[in-house]
């Protein structure tokens, strides 16, 4: 056999890894929340998709958990400069969630219990790029990390991965979410270091 790149075998170490610019590697899992941790009973939990005027789809916990799930292994990049590699999650792909929704909307506002919001182009939720995750490292997702369920959209800075997610509003016109209104970048690509607005 020829030479096998180290990246294809064994565990990745910082020597193998190219981090987005300005990021450092961490192995713990910091908690970053703008407010108190909401505790949502599963019997009360719901996830809805609306178009700003009406609810298009609604899942309770039972119907949500009947959707097919995927095991996800992804790197996380927080705008406060830590990156955590190879995290393991279980969740429902947004491709599954959006499959039966017909819409011309180009933008999404992700809504959380506790009123956090974050915006992104709807296409960034499609094509195996985003999940509603409810398990982390083979355990139910802890409330402090967004349980019962959080958005996971690992190709953008982690503030886009809304914890305690409760729904998505489809929008024709883009609008800023919580951090985006406070000066974070509207899109937040870690590889282009889109930390704050006013940059690229
Ligand atoms: N609902 C909600 N989601 C949120 C936040 C928040 O304050 N509220 N913080 C965001 C930010 S800034 C980051 S870095 C990540 C942190 O996720 P963690 O606490 O699981 O590390 O969650 C994001 N999602
Ligand atoms: Mo963050």
Account of the 3D structure:
- Strands 1, 4, 5, 8, 9 and 10 form a six-stranded mixed sheet that branches. The chain has a five-stranded mixed sheet with strand order 3-2-11-6-7.
- The protein has three helices and eleven strands; from the N terminus they run βββαββαββββββα.
- Residues 1-9 have low confidence and may be disordered.
- A hairpin with a 4-residue loop joins strand 4 and strand 5 (82-93).
- By secondary structure, the chain is mainly beta.
- It has one domain (3-8, 17-27, 41-192): Sulfite Oxidase, Chain A, domain 2 (Alpha-Beta Complex), CATH 3.90.420.10.
- The radius of gyration is 17 Å and the shape is globular.
- The structure holds the ligand Nc1nc2c(c(=O)[nH]1)N[C@H]1C(S)=C(S)[C@@H](COP(=O)(O)O)O[C@H]1N2 and molybdenum atom.
- Ligand MTE binds at residues 29-34, 78, 112, 114, 116, 145-146, 158-159, 161-164.
- The site of the ligand Nc1nc2c(c(=O)[nH]1)N[C@H]1C(S)=C(S)[C@@H](COP(=O)(O)O)O[C@H]1N2 has 18 residues, from loops.
List unreliable stretches of 5+ residues: 1-9
Mean pLDDT score: 93
Could you tell me the number of beta strands? 11
Order of helices and strands: EEEHEEHEEEEEEH
Oligomer status: single chain
Taken as a percent bin, the fraction of beta residues is: 25-35%
Structural class: mainly beta
Distance between the termini: 44 Å
The CATH superfamily turns out to be Oxidoreductase, molybdopterin-binding domain
Helicity, in percent?
A: under 10%
- How many domains make up the 3D coordinates? 1
What would CATH call the class?
A: Alpha Beta
Count of DSSP-assigned helices: 3
What is the fold named in CATH at topology level?
Answer: Sulfite Oxidase, Chain A, domain 2
């Amino acid at each position: 056999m020829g030479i096998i790149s180290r990246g294809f075998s064994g565990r990745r170490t910082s020597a193998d890894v190219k981090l987005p610019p300005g990021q450092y590697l961490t192995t713990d899992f910091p908690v970053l929340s703008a407010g108190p941790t909401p505790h949502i009973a599963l019997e009360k939990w719901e996830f809805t998709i609306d178009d700003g005027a009406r609810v298009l789809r609604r899942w309770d916990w039972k119907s949500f958990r009947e959707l097919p799930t995927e095991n996800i292994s992804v790197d996380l990049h927080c705008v406060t400069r830590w990156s955590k590699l190879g995290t393991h999650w279980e969740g429902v792909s947004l491709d599954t969630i959006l499959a039966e929704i017909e819409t011309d909307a180009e933008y999404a506002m992700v809504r959380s219990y506790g009123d956090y919001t974050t915006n992104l182009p709807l296409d960034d939720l499609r094509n195996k790029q985003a999940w509603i995750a409810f398990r982390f490292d083979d355990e139910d997702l802890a409330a402090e990390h967004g349980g019962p369920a959080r958005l996971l959209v690992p190709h953008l800075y982690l503030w886009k991965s809304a914890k305690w997610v409760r729904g998505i509003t489809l929008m024709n016109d883009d609008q800023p979410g919580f951090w985006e209104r406070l000066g974070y970048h509207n899109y937040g690509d870690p590889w282009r270091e889109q930390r704050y607005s006013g940059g690229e």
